[in-house]
Design a protein that fits this description.
Elements (H helix, E strand, L loop, with lengths): L7 H11 L16 E6 L10 H19 L3 E3 L3 E2 L4 H10 L3 H19 L9 E2 L3 H16 L3 E11 L4 E3 L4 E2 L2 E2 L8 E10 L5 H6 L10 H11 L2 E10 L4 E6 L10 E4 L6 H4 L5 H9 L13 E9 L6 E7 L10 E4 L5 H10 L7 E2 L18 E2 L10 H15 L2 E6 L5 E2 L1 E2 L9 E4 L3 E4 L27 H4 E3 L6 E4 L3 E2 L4 H8 L12 H7 L4 E5 L5 H15 L12 E4 L2 E3 L2 E2 L10 H8 L1 H10 L7 E3 L1 H21 L11 H22 L4 H18 L5 H15 L4 H10 L16 H4 L3 E8 L2 E9 L4 H10 L4 H4 L4 E7 L3 E6 L1
Parallel strand pairs: 1-2, 1-26, 3-4, 12-14, 26-27, 28-30, 31-34
Antiparallel strand pairs: 5-6, 5-9, 7-8, 9-19, 10-11, 10-13, 10-18, 12-15, 13-14, 16-17, 20-25, 21-22, 21-24, 23-24, 28-29, 31-32, 33-34
The chain binds one RNA strand through helix 7, strand 11, strand 15, helix 10 and helix 18.
Length: 812
RNA sequence: GCCCGAGUGGCGAAACCGGCAGACGCAACGGACUUAAAAUCCGUUUCCCGGCAACGGGAGUGUGGGUUCAAGUCCCACCUCGGGCACCA
């Protein structure tokens, strides 16, 4: 049969139509087969896929298809992280209703995904903006409220006076509003909803152990840092004239060197302690936008006029306000020990506060004059009964004493804070509570869920959430006393949506519960989660938190959502992240239109190993298209040669040998490092070799070569593989066929090539039968025509033989 | 400042356990096919030196040292780039 010309669009459109069959990628629980849950992070439906998505999903799709071929029961779902601010911005800018805008984006992106040939079970699709989904956000919120894991408190938020609304941290640019670049953002106290993530600090930290085998070390380190567990002590300093200030310190052993106490400016007692004439100064420190950026900040502060008493030695120390003290960490109050802390040293020397050394280096004396802080551990001195003790022992005894006398204790603090989830926005999950004058905050009864987001709202971009001015939404009878009341108008942070969506995939049509536990028990944990490293902290910590809460609610039994995590690299163009503003976007649609989806996918896998950043190169893409054309022509022109009789010869052996060497390589890549770039290189080598021996091959090897080649291609270039599988006369789908079996004997070279080195430099190569003993190799090497002359008159000191590989002759 | 990761041809990269550096692809060049071009097929391509040539010699994986018969790979110091964290008391 004459070869056919490769026309990617004709082939791919034909199969894309057939792949509309929802049964094709459908997963259902099956106790007879091992399950495999492969998950890629769901996209925000911004309107179009970008190359980062294509890369992420090409990796996941290759894996899903491979696991199918290995006989696993594969779950491979997809959904939409569909709530969020861009929908409101689009509403403002283009006068489109957020839901309508979001759904039309989803429609387009889904079309793109289908065109790219990703093997998703669309029957399990989830869009988080639909009431069928977000009602369970609300349900979980009520459960957390019951368990005291959700609560309300005053907190400081970023407030833009111009917009008259709260800003997310990401919307504060250099201390100013992103929309009003001249307007400094103020800190305002506002009542907000929080989830008690800190109740799980230790679980989140300790259960990282379960992830060490399957998550990148880098991500786990980032999470450990984020949780930031720190062991120390809390000590109460009595304020002269009434009250107590509690400080947190990790270095209680230096407490005899404390020469002042410093409060964060936001500290609740700060306003009461500062003199009337300093009130304005205090406010200006609080609102100073420079405090967001510690690098730029000069340490500043002032004396309050009050003193506190160090309980260890009874000494009076001045109480200061300091702009570098964080309210959000520890107790918001520190004891300054300038002799042993660099920051305290900087602050105290600036304001002429006493520096009193109390720790000496183990092999040195206590200095009289201090030129810089000595922050290391050492031997405690000038510290009453504790003098002479090493730092660690001093801490132990001081903690014990503080506890005994009741003015302190050992304590642990965390950097991790409770999760503030209130957003004064429209396009998110309504928080299901009602504010009643008589009853206070009343949860919406479960039976009344979902609290639906009204669709007929005016989005102005200023002031409160648009929900606040929607009378039909706001006005509601109190669920408890039926008196007129107001609904909560804040919505939930969208990170809630993505914290548990992968559970919903397992049972996405359930209208009586978020999911049925037995389904989770079958599919969980996720066997492989794939996404960008930019989610290492927020999404992946919230997801872990949510999983632990659900476990403690008795809904699931797994402690962690995902056994394995893979973080793929970014897609760059000209060394920079692709972005609209840089004008270096590459549109997947254009690539698909020009070369087809197989080429596009193959290139994202070929250009770099998946965990590394890859730089997009237009002309390099063509190489993948060329390769697919070579495969296509080879297979189509040789289909009919499969049955042709003939004595198998050297060409057949060569073809089969390379075939099985390639199979070994690719199987190893899938089971190991996922370096698909080398898998594809191996396939190219195979095809190159086949072109060379093609003319001499007989029907005896052609059949197995064609079949195995197409099967190996199936996870990487699914359209091509499916088309050729049909050309070969088989019933599809190709990704449901068994992965080919590796044959060691066919893969083996006839003879081993052994490198002969003299003093480490390659001088000759010899061929020897496999298993040739070392002594024989050594004498073959020494007698070799190229080697022997170079040994004339030299003394052979040593010969190192690595059987089957190398002989190194050391001469003098 | 601290903690990771990386640095290999003109370019993207490979070398997985210390054993032939540069597989595979891009680009470039040469040849075949063609009236011509594209496409395709077959070659060459790390650099330097010698040779008409097959070939031979030398250098070479950011820099400097070290370990080893043997180092891109291991150890020490440094440089550059990327990422994360950063008054966390």
């Amino acid at each position: 049969m004459p070869e056919k010309t490769y026309d990617p669009n004709a082939i791919e459109l034909k199969w894309a139509a057939r792949w509309e069959d929802p049964a094709l990628y459908q997963a259902s629980a099956d106790a007879t087969r091992p399950k495999y849950y492969v998950l890629e992070m769901l996209p925000y439906p911004s309107g179009r896929l970008h190359m980062g998505h294509v890369r992420n999903y090409s990796i996941g799709d290759a894996l899903a298809r491979y696991m199918w071929m290995r006989g696993y029961n594969v779950l491979h779902p997809m959904g939409w992280d569909a709530f969020g601010l861009p929908a409101e911005n689009a509403a403002l800018k283009n006068n489109r209703q957020p839901r309508e805008w979001t759904l039309s984006n989803i429609e387009h992106m889904k079309k793109q995904m289908k065109r790219l040939g990703f093997s998703y079970d669309w029957a399990r699709e989830v869009a988080t903006c639909e009431p069928e989904y977000y009602r369970w956000n609300q349900w979980f919120f009520l459960k957390m409220l019951e368990k005291d894991l959700a609560y309300r408190k005053d907190s400081l938020v970023n407030w833009c006076p111009e917009c008259a609304t709260v800003l997310a941290n990401e919307q504060v640019v250099e201390g100013c509003c992103w929309r009003h670049e001249q307007t400094p953002v103020e800190q305002r106290a506002l009542e907000q909803w929080f989830l008690r993530t800190t109740a799980y600090s230790d679980a989140l930290l300790d259960e990282i152990k379960q992830l060490e085998a399957g998550w990148p070390e880098r991500v786990l380190t980032m999470q450990r840092n984020w949780i930031g567990r720190s062991e120390g002590s809390e000590v109460d300093f009595e304020v002269e004239g009434g009250g107590t200030l509690r400080v947190f310190t990790t270095r209680i052993d230096t407490i005899f060197g404390a020469t002042c106490v410093i409060l964060a400016p936001e500290h609740p007692m700060a306003a009461a302690l500062v003199r009337a004439e300093d009130k304005a100064r205090l406010k200006s420190i609080i609102d100073d936008p420079g405090r967001k950026d510690p690098k730029q900040l000069d340490k500043e502060g002032f004396f309050t006029g009050h003193y506190a008493i160090n309980p260890f030695n009874g000494r009076m120390v001045p109480i200061w306000i300091g702009n570098f003290v964080l309210m959000g960490y520890g107790t918001g109050t520190i004891m300054a020990v300038p002799a042993h802390d660099e920051r305290d040293f900087e602050f105290c020397t600036k304001y002429g506060i006493e520096v009193r050394p109390v720790v000496r280096p183990v092999d040195d004396i206590l200095p009289l004059v201090v030129g810089s802080a000595f922050p290391d551990e050492g031997i405690v001195e000038s510290s009453g009964p504790f003098s002479g003790l090493p730092s660690a022992e001093a801490r132990r005894q001081m903690n014990a004493m503080a506890a005994e006398k009741g003015f302190g204790k050992s304590a642990i603090t965390y950097r991790l804070k409770d999760w503030g989830i209130s957003r004064q926005r429209y396009w998110g999950t309504p928080i299901p509570v009602v504010h009643c004058k008589a009853c206070g905050i009343v949860p919406v009864p479960e039976s009344e869920l979902p609290v639906r987001l009204p669709l007929d709202v005016q989005i102005t971009g200023a002031g409160d959430s648009p929900l606040a001015s929607h009378a039909g939404f706001v006005n509601t009878p109190c669920p408890r006393c039926q008196a007129p009341a107001r609904r909560e108008t804040d919505t939930m942070d969208t990170f809630i949506d993505s914290s548990w969506y992968f559970y919903r995939y397992c049972d996405n049509t359930n209208s009586g519960a978020p999911f049925e536990s037995s389904r989770i028990a079958y599919w969980f944990p996720i066997d492989q989660y794939i996404g960008g490293v930019e989610h290492a902290i927020l999404h992946l910590i919230y997801s872990r938190f949510w999983t632990k809460v659900m476990r403690d609610l008795g809904l699931i039994s797994n402690a962690e959502p995902a056994r394995n995590l893979f973080t793929q690299g970014m897609v760059l163009k000209d060394g920079a992240k692709m972005s609209k503003s840089l004008g270096n976007l590459v549109d997947p649609d254009e690539i698909v239109a020009r070369f087809g989806a197989d080429t596009c996918r193959l290139y994202t896998l070929f250009a770099a190993p998946p965990e590394k950043d890859m730089d997009w190169n237009d002309s390099s893409v063509e190489g993948q298209s060329r390769f697919l054309g070579r495969v296509y022509r080879f297979v189509t022109r040789n289909v009919d040669r499969r049955g042709v009789a003939g004595e198998p010869g050297a060409a057949d052996r060569r073809a089969l040998r390379k075939l099985h060497q390639t199979l070994k390589k690719i199987t190893g890549d899938f089971d190991g490092r996922w370096h698909f770039n080398t898998s594809i290189a191996a396939l190219m080598e195979l095809v190159n070799e086949l072109y060379l021996v093609e003319g001499e091959m007989t029907g005896s090897s052609m059949g197995s070569v064609l079949n195995t080649l197409v099967l190996m291609l199936a996870p990487l270039a699914p359209y091509m593989a499916e088309e050729l599988w049909e050309e070969l006369g088989h019933q599809g789908p190709v990704f449901r066929q068994a992965w080919p079996v590796f044959d060691e004997d066919l893969a083996r070279e006839d003879e081993a090539e052994v490198v002969v080195q003299i003093n480490g430099k390659v001088r000759a190569r010899i061929l020897a039968a496999h298993g040739t003993p070392g002594e024989i190799l050594e004498s073959m090497a020494l007698e070799d025509a190229k080697v022997a002359p170079q040994l004339e008159g030299r003394q052979v000191m040593k010969v190192i033989v690595v059987p089957g590989k190398l002989v190194n002759i050391v001469i003098r």
